Structures are given as C-alpha cells and as structure tokens.
Amino acid sequence: MTTSLPVGLRDIILASERISSRVRKTPIIRSDVLSERVGTAVYLKLEHQQITGSFKLRGATNAVLSLSAEEKARGVVAASTGNHGRALAFAARAEGSTATICMSRLVPENKVSEIRRLGANVRIIGRSQDDAQREVDRLVQKGGLVAVPPFDDARVIAGQGSLGLEVFKDCPDAATVLVPLSGGGLACGVAAALKAINRQVRIIGLTMERGAAMKASLEAGRPVEVQEEESFADSLGGGIGLNNQLTLSMCRDLLDDVVLLSEPEIAAGIRHAYRVEREVIEGAGAVGVAALLSGKIEISGPVVAILSGRNVDMEQHRRVINGATAPGRKDAA
C-alpha cells in the first residue's frame, strides 16, 4: 500500500533524523475523562507544545535544511494561514536565510504579528489562500525566491511524518489516529508513517464544515476551490491548490475517513481542552477532542488525537471559554 507513495517511510525516517536537533519531541498523555467517555483509552499528542506552537515547524525545518546554500541565500517564500509562516520564518532565520510570508486578510492578527516578530517580510493579499498563493508564484518568477509550500511538498510532508513516528513509539497499540486536515501535509505524513508500520491503523482526517477544501476535492476527484469563511479552526482554511501534486492523491489513498465538525462542536473541543485537560489550543488543534465529544467517530481500541497547535487569538479563546459558539467578535459571549 505504501510502497508507491511519493513520500514513504524511508523519507520520513531521514527527515526525522535531519530535524531532530531543531524540533521538540512532544509528549503523549492519557486523557482519563475522554477515555471514560468513549469507552477506550484516549491519548492526546501535545504537538501544540512545539517550539513555534504547531506541528508546522517539522515540515518547514526539513524543507529549509534540504536547500542548497545558494537557495538559502535567495530567500524562501510561502503562502500561509499563519502557522506555516511562523514555522518557516523561524526555520529560515535559524539558517541565516530570509522568509517572505503571503497571507490573506482572514489570518488572525496574532499570527501575523508573530511572523513579523521573527523577522519575515509579510504580504497581506486578498481574502483567500489562493490569492496569497498567486503572490507567492509572482515572487518566485520575478523575485527569484524559493517556494516552500505549506503542504504540497515532499520535504514538508516527510517532516510532518516525523510526528507519526513519535506517535508509534509512544503509543504502538493505537488503533485510530485523529489528525487535523487542511491541505493534507500533516495527515499524509502521519498516515504514510503509521500505515507503513501497521496497515490496520485507522487514520481519520478532521476538518471544519466551513470551507473544507480537501473534503470537497476528494469527493470531486480533483482539486476544487471553496469559499473561505471565518472559523474557530482558521488554520484549517484555504484551498489545496488547483495544481495539487501530492496531498490529494495521498489523502485519497491513506485516509480511512474525513469527518466534518461544526463551529459549536469545535468550540466545545476548545473548552474541554482548557477546562478539563488544562491545555490552551486553537480551533484546529481541538478538532480531535471535538470529534470524540461529538460522537461522530466510531471508536474501537486505543485512539490518539493530535493537538496540532496553540497559536490562538486569546480574545477569541476567552470568548469560546465564556460560551461563544460562532467565530467573529460581534458574537456575544
């Protein structure tokens, strides 16, 4: 099953070794409350404790370390919904390179300001990831910058796959792994790693109902554009690219299911993580907890939910904790 994949276990092992001194091995903990609720052991992979606050540092670091000296000197560029941009800015600065990050107006200001703090050049373009990507393409063609895509890139996917190796090492008996799903880099990397070791493990992609580009593309059998809307899970927004080369086919071949979550369900996941697990996470990082609380996934055997990021606007987080069920500051808490 995994031998014909564009990113395989060997690629992931090499990436894990390459980035081992640059990223944090994040812990897995058992959630007693969630375990009691679903009737089987539930473990939380605390990837939100990663250095830049999300899993994105793994892929960005592997990509930057794979560049030649000449490419690093030219500088890197990417479109981002926030977390990839932060990770790429951090990884580029560590290697003496410069990063330019293109984002839409839907990216929360807390993520934009942190990317600026890390020394990256920031460009705010349009209201969608596709708009931002068009600016990336222009800068590559006219400015000579080196593109480091947020997900549709073999180096990035392999880097994200290192997380899957950690899941297996810490929880080898996992029967189901719940993975946040946007462009598919994390889901593909984790699934490629785990299914190469154990074909029976179930990998479930989780995303929001509002603008689920990968879900729509899988159903259409080709990349499709979707309208981007505000969501608590803003990191899961954006398209997969109409010229998608890797993640659509890998998600098709590796994911056992894709489950959509409503905004109230995502909010419930954020609240549970804070009130019960004592973890501050963003909406995208809460979808695994949200799926378990909602009962939308049939669980048998140990399950691992990946808490993928913590880079939440704290005002938004306060609103959710106080009862908000829809994004946007006009919604009363």
TrEMBL record:
InterPro entries xrefs: Ectoine_EutB (IPR014333), Ser/Thr_Dehydratase (IPR050147), Ser/Thr_deHydtase_PyrdxlP-BS (IPR000634), TrpB-like_PALP (IPR001926), TrpB-like_PALP_sf (IPR036052)
Domain Tryptophan synthase beta chain-like PALP: 20-309
Keywords, in A-Z order: Lyase, Pyridoxal phosphate
Keyword Lyase: yes
Highest taxon, organism lineage: Bacteria
Single GO term (MF): L-serine ammonia-lyase activity
A single GO BP: L-serine catabolic process
Protein name: Threonine dehydratase
Family the UniProt entry places it in: Belongs to the serine/threonine dehydratase family.
NCBIfam families: ectoine_eutB, PRK07476.1
Cofactor list: pyridoxal 5'-phosphate
Protein's UniProt keywords contain Lyase: yes
Coiled coil location: none
Cited Gene3D superfamilies: 3.40.50.1100
PROSITE patterns: DEHYDRATASE_SER_THR
